[in-house]
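Deliverable D2.4 — example input (structure tokens):
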């Protein structure tokens, strides 16, 4: 499994934000309104980001020799969680940013101001989740083979 690129996450967030804004603009023009973004979303996303980093820190401690043992399945699951968190964070950042952008022309309405702030806070928290996922992926990455280690030859003459 390759490491997630930050450029990929930025593209996912931008595309999701554009689609969200377009679809919600169309729905808004037809009189349909979504429920406001709850204020609890941002703290929950930040807590999830902290839990992802906490899980990945156990893998990092093992890889650095500070932890005597670690179940390989747990390490693999943590790496998968880190990747999923970064992609989920990017998708949610686009979703909430699209909602925040939709409210900008209507900020003179008090209800839209609250929606803009809660959607903006949720978008920032989703970016925190994406970054935490990227950091956790790095924590779970195996170190490259040492420069001083000799390479082994296979029977067919190729290097391992």
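Example output (designed residues):
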């Amino acid at each position: 499994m390759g490491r997630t690129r930050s450029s990929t996450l930025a593209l996912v967030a931008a595309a999701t934000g554009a689609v969200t804004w377009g679809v919600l603009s169309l729905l808004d023009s037809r009189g349909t309104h979504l429920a406001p973004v709850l204020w609890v979303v941002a703290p929950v996303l930040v807590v999830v980001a902290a839990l992802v980093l906490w899980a990945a820190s156990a893998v990092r401690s093992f890889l650095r020799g500070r932890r005597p043992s670690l179940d390989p399945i747990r390490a693999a699951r943590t790496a998968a969680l880190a990747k999923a968190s970064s992609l989920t964070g990017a998708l949610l950042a686009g979703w909430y940013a699209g909602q925040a952008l939709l409210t900008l022309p209507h900020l003179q309405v008090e209800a839209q101001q609250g929606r803009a702030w809660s959607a903006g806070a949720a978008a920032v928290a989703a970016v925190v989740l994406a970054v935490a996922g990227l950091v956790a992926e790095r924590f779970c990455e195996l170190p490259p083979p040492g420069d001083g280690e000799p390479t082994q030859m296979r029977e067919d003459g190729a290097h391992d």
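The chain has a mean pLDDT of 85.
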